[in-house]
Amino acid sequence: MKRAAPVLIVALAAACGGGGGGGAAANGSPLVRVSAPTPFAADCGGSGQAGTLYPNAEVEPHVAANPARPGNLIGVWQQDRWSNGGAQALMTAASFDGGASWTAPAGLRTDRCAGGSAADGANYQRASDPWVTFAPDGTAYASSLSFTGGVQVAGSSNGILVVRSTDGGRSFGEPAVLIADGSDAFDDKDSITADPTDASFVYAVWDRPSTNTNGPTYAARTADGGLSWEPARAIYDPGSTSQTIGNVIAVLPDGTLLDLLTQIDTASDGSKASFLAVVRSLDHGATWSGSVRVADLEAVGVTDPQTHKPVRDGAGLGQIAVTPSGQALVVWQDARFSGGDHDGVALSRSTDGGLTWSAAVQVNGAPQAQAFTPTVAVSPDGSIAVTYYDSRDDTASGNTFLTDVWLAESSDGGATWSESQIAGPFDLDLAPDSDGLFLGDYQALAGGAAGFAPFFVQTTAAKSNRTDVFVLPEGSAGAGALSSTELRVAAPAAPLVPRADFARRVSDRLTRLVTSRRRGR
User: 14: which DSSP letter?
Assistant: First the structure.
């Protein structure tokens, strides 16, 4: 199914009001635009900063659904992305009707542009890697990687900050500083998870490289609902020639914690390989196990096939969710299904608390197309959904890189899937350039009582406003489908007979991932 991307993009942008507007777009989709024009001056973080600033470019969103109040969602994202890492600030907005309308976006107080100062520990030029979570009592927590200057260069500083909301996201308080570092180490790729079994506990986790090859997993927790935080500490160290990245904690119904991570190993010749693993805690994060391997991670990354421009996608990062029955689900980007030619979306399951994991199956419904940046969520009734981008509607034209957003759903634990196209095609070539075309290292998906709410970024037709954050409100997946596929069985990967250059391409993609993080988060 081919459509003219510029016409659809313009219609969609015109039909959806920023910062809480809604209404059906011209194509019949109920997509709602959540982001709004930037409130920040170009020098709000300080004058003379290096890099290219993309005003009005919103990227890398995250979203959470309130278990204590159906229909309450909080979204966070980067506002005004810089080419060499981070953004002017992190923004947030809240919905109380399942995503149909939103409060006006406001800055999280985690850097200077959003009101941070030396007095509250948020005197940083930029912020990145937003994440948000709800505790079972309705308290919300958002985390930020905040920094000034480059990575491990003289005069640089960085830290992980958390802000808290007790009113459903209408407002957030002053930041709690979980860690503050100078140029000797850098903190990266944070996430935050409230314990659904006990509102007292919230867990923040990130990686903290100190050399070119070593980067242990660090964590901090609160045991009193965010009133205080225990000191940050290493919970898993993969060794002197390895680092972790993409740490995300999920909590099983029995209270077991699973920290999903990517481990990147560097060989003596400089080549890299990686795998997904979990480390487990049975005591609310007081102690942690060694790692349990989930799967090799064999992504080669996405490129525009005409211009060969690389996409800075979710390759190298996994996402995790847990069903009410205790099944753990991990999704990631991987080239195993195409013999190493291009990336698809892989899923693995564990039914024994993360001790063993199934063989990977392919979730994306167009195996011939590049598919990337998946995320996974579970609704209260146990239904599973995965969102991802793919290029099945792209053409041979060298002028555009047409990309769609898809929602795949399963009601039988992941054995069979149907999928719906919920946005696109849009031109990915219009995205900000941050070591590649950049919509974010991750996107977001919430599973509420009324259904799933994909929360994602797509490009617009205007270079002065390259990207916006959109949501498909809860329960709108069927109504919002631009096209759909029949129920199909998730297929396991055939025995891998890779291209001759497969290992090198995987290594090169991992090198780009590590380099881009060290060049600017």
Answer: H
**What is d(CA 311, CA 272) in angstroms, rounded to the nearest whole number?**
20
- Which residues have a Cβ under 8 Å from the Cβ of 55 and sit 6 or more positions away? 38, 40, 42, 80, 464
Q: Which element (helix H / strand E) includes 502?
A: helix 502-519
Average pLDDT, the chain: 91
Q: Is 20 left (phi over 0), alpha (psi -120 to 50) or beta?
A: left
pLDDT in tens, 309-324: 999 999 999 999 999 9
Q: Provide the phi-psi class of 173: left if phi over 0, else alpha when psi is between -120 and 50, else beta.
A: beta
Spell out the long-range contacts of 20-25 with Cβ–Cβ below 8 A and sequence spacing 24 or more: 20/93, 20/101, 20/102, 20/103, 20/104, 21/101, 22/100, 22/101, 22/473
- 5 φ, ψ to 5°? -60, -45
Q: Dihedral sign, CA of 76, 459, 515, 331? A: positive
Rounded-to-integer distance, Cα 462 and Cα 477, Å? 27
- E strand or H helix at 514, and its extent? helix 502-519
What residue type is assigned to position 328 of the chain? A
Residue of 194, 68, 208, 181 whose CA lies nearest to 131: 194
Q: Can you give 309-369 as a three-state secondary structure string?
A: CEEECCCCCCEEEECCCCCEEEEEEECHHHCCCCCEEEEEEECCCCCCCCCCEECCCCCCC
In the DSSP assignment, the letter for residue 199 is T
Q: Which of 374, 510, 345 is nearest to 442 (CA)?
A: 374
DSSP secondary structure letters along 28-95: S---EE---S----TTTT-TT--S-EEEEEEEEEEEEE-TTSTT-EEEEEEEEEETTS-EEEEEEEEE
pLDDT of res. 478: 64
Determine contact, residues 516/509, Cβ cutoff 8 Å: no
The stretch 1-21 carries a mean pLDDT of 34
pTM, entire model: 0.93
Residues β-bridged to residue 364: none
Please count the CA atoms within 13 angstroms of the CA of 509 that sit on its side-chain side: 28
Spatial CA neighbour of 37 closest among 391, 354, 467, 343? 467
Please tell me the distance from the alpha carbon of residue 31 to that of residue 9, in angstroms, as a whole number.
Answer: 12
- pLDDT of 484: 67
Cα–Cα distance for residue pair 174/116, rounded to 1 Å: 9
Burial of 28 (0-12, 13-18, 19+ CB in 10 A): exposed
CA distance 104 to 492: 44
| Beta-carbon count within 10 A of 50 CB | 11
- Core vs surface per residue 492-504: b (16+ CB within 10 A) or e: ebeeeebeeebee
Query: CA 497 to CA 197: how far, in whole Å?
Result: 44
Measure the N-to-C terminal CA separation of the chain; round to a whole number of Å. Answer: 36
Taking only the tens place, the pLDDT of each residue in 323-376 is 999 999 999 999 999 999 999 999 999 999 999 999 999 999 999 999 999 999
How high is the pLDDT of residue 320? 98
Tokens 């205790």 found at = 326
